[in-house]
# Entry
Amino acid sequence: MQRFASASRVFTLARRSYATPPSPSALVLIEHKDDKIVPASLNAITAARKLGGTVTGLVVGEEASTKAVVEGAQKLGLDALLHRTSPALAHALAEPLAPVLAALVKSGNYTHLTAAHSAQGKNIFPRVAGILGVQQISDVMAIESPDTFVRPIYAGNAIATVKSSDSIKIFTVRSASWDAAVSGEGATEVDAKAAEEVGKEQAAWVSEELTKSERPDLGSAQAVVSGGRGVKSKESFDSIIFPLADALGAAVGASRAAVDSGYADNSQQVGQTGKVVAPSLYVAVGISGALQHLAGMKDSKTIVAINKDPDAPIFQVADHGLVADLFEAVPELTKKVEEAKK
Amino acid sequence: MRASPPTWIKLLVPIKRTVDYSVKVRVGPKGVETAGVKHSLNPFCEIAVEEAVRLREKLKERIESITVVTIGPPKAADVLRTALAMGADAAIHVEVKDGQDVQPLGVAQALKAIVEQEKPDLIILGKQAIDDDSSQVGGMLAGLLDWPQANFASKLEVEGDKIKVAREIDGGLETLMMALPAVVTTDLRLNEPRYASLPNIMKAKKKPLKKMKAEDLKVDLTPRLETLKVEAPPARQGGAKVGSVDEIVSKLKEAGVL
# Structure
């Protein structure tokens, strides 16, 4: 890879008409689901604040189903809050939504546009970047300055610091790397309008199948219990992993092998191609620890691994590794965790 | 009365040559070391090629052609040959210099120019390349073309002149229906790619592979992001083993997580 592109800098200088860079003015897309703010958006707000300028929240969707979301967003201490509605934005499809975002960024002279690096952010933001002709920065872990960002590459096996020469910076935020913005007193005034520049409805939404779960959300949970191939069946996944997760108040994750074998749902996959988590406690049960899985959990504060293979790579990252048969060790651990809580 | 479906579909499958997924990459003074490291077809691109070939197996003559395209250094021709051996008909190689950093926006703009020449009806790409992990090209291309998009597809069906796609979203699946032309990006669960057989690898050598340069497409591939540095991630202090479940419980109590 070529590291220094002098040509691009010349190009930027020629385009830039102001003497000093403008103070950052960030627009954050607040993702919502079932009348609630998606927790990962709260991490994106914290990242936007790091830029050092104003932070404006944006809630888009159908009018009726976004009222509670706007009320919640008002308490987040944002400098401004925009509410843009249209029946066409009901399912947050990329085709109608991306032109709305592109137009807002231009008309509001925002220097930065950001959202969580969630399935929705990953779906919509590249389309916005394409429309605006901007090179997006994905999965930002740290911000060094308003134009310099830190992001993982090669499944988190290398960390790159990149400097953008675009006049508008579009980036998605790795939620596991940032604290969540908290609600407080007071309420930001809402600028509510019908959305402008809504794109053509090119794709029709047909249906949705969500995995129902009473357990905490995987992306934002304080503790995660994950099962891998070693759990051997869906039945044992349900009877061994779930009770430990419940005892710890944890979310349930899985390795790719467990998902491919049908023990767990796709949306529970932790890793390079699934979710990236960084809880206080990550318990890996029957997971060998392939590079692609480690990419999704190695920033967890404490990692516990239970595996019968003493040479499993998971033990190289685990703080506390137990070489044991999971079918005996996990039920015992569940029992003792329950006792410890009493 | 419904319009009759088009008699054929032309497929375009953009692919990328990346460091093999099983290689543990090393970070050297100049970034990730790629010289002398095993490279292969990006796994998600492999799934995209497989899906294109399966569509032909299902729809027969309705698939007019499958063209694979890559933007990359001379060696990227290898992955085009791999895709041809899997069943693609023709390949286009937009050749750039060895070591040249081509970023997703440049790739999407180059692909748009290729789409204008080739006029495909359906573009299937991987959801992300496992080297830069950007997950952008599909969406950017759909935005540039103003075509509908279905990212992270785990099921793709052609119904008349429309496609029905199940997408993997946070918490489950979402199903969309869209008219062609469209852009689809593949998730892991879409299919299991086949291995190319030896006779097919031999046949692939005779299939057409067109070379061109970025200048031919009139696109500027100058990177917008300058990489200031690449570092190895902080190493974890792992490796401690405990002897019993009780020890885990007491360690967790010490750490304050219980």
About this structure: The mean pLDDT of chain B is 94. The CA atoms of residues 1 and 179 of chain B lie 17 Å apart. The first strand of chain B starts at residue 9 and ends at 14. The domain at 9-225 of chain B is CATH 3.40.50.620 (Rossmann fold).
